[in-house]
């Protein structure tokens, strides 16, 4: 997968000169069936069960997936998955300079991931939230495109008849093929988010460095004031 630093700048109020922005979100892209053999000497008893998987995905303005984490069960919180991802470590080390991600309030506010204001107190913050929501819609459309190209990832296609590990590999392979198709311009109209497929935003459950949270808060306030204060 290509790194976030190679993503195209967004045509959005969030994309300022020399600053790269990408969008981060998660979704359950598949169910998978697993079977366990419970005995060696006796005829094996096959017990089948279905499990959800949760993927955290980063995309750019052209629906290209620039990062994907596919290895956690569906019960895992978005913020936990992101904190244990390679892209988080690279952002924490400052590999992308002034670049940052946009994420919903399930993610912890940090200097490298901008989240909405939970309770906007003025017009610039409300305008920030509005632009944030419109821009973040790109990731929902990317999920729609991915599932339109690969119906095995859509819940209407049922469950993948593979173990979780194999199912995770299938999800990543579909993301790679999606990027190839997108870059080569293979026709597929960007899909609007399917209301039946959209997942409820997870409640924020943030832990960690308060200093980083304060730095993120200052940066978010700066963005709201500098780029959205003119709308007041």
UniProtKB/TrEMBL annotation:
Pfam families reported for this sequence: DDE_Tnp_4
Q: What is this protein's function per UniProt?
A: Transposase-derived protein that may have nuclease activity. Does not have transposase activity.
This protein's species is Pleurodeles waltl (Iberian ribbed newt)
> What is this protein's record name?
Putative nuclease HARBI1
In the record, what lineage is assigned to the organism producing the protein?
Eukaryota, Metazoa, Chordata, Craniata, Vertebrata
Main location (coarse class):
cytoplasm
- Domain of life, source organism: Eukaryota
Q: Which cofactor does it need?
A: a divalent metal cation
Q: Does the keyword Iron apply?
A: no
Q: Region Disordered: what ranges?
A: 185-216
What residue stretches are annotated with the DDE Tnp4 domain?
Answer: 56-179
Which keywords are on file for this protein?
Cytoplasm, Hydrolase, Metal-binding, Nuclease, Nucleus
């Amino acid at each position: 997968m290509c790194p976030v630093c190679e993503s195209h700048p967004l045509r959005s109020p969030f994309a300022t000169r020399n600053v790269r922005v990408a969008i981060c979100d998660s979704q359950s892209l598949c169910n998978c069936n697993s079977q366990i053999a419970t005995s060696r000497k006796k005829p094996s008893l096959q017990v089948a069960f279905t499990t959800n998987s949760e993927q955290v995905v980063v995309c750019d303005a052209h629906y290209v997936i620039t990062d994907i984490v596919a290895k956690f069960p569906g019960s895992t919180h978005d913020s936990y998955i992101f904190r244990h991802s390679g892209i988080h470590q690279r952002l924490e080390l400052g590999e992308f300079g002034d670049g940052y991600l946009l994420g919903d309030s399930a993610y912890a506010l940090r200097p490298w991931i901008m989240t909405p204001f939970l309770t906007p107190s003025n017009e610039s913050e409300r305008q920030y939230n509005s632009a944030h929501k419109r821009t973040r819609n790109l990731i929902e459309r990317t999920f729609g495109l991915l599932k339109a190209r690969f119906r095995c990832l859509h819940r209407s296609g049922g469950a993948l008849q593979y173990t979780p590990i194999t199912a995770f590999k299938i999800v990543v392979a579909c993301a790679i093929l999606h990027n190839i198709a997108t870059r080569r311009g293979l026709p597929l109209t960007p899909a609007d988010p399917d209301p039946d497929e959209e997942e409820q935003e997870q409640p924020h459950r943030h832990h960690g460095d308060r200093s980083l949270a304060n730095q993120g808060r200052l940066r978010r306030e700066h963005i709201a004031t500098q780029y959205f204060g003119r709308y007041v």
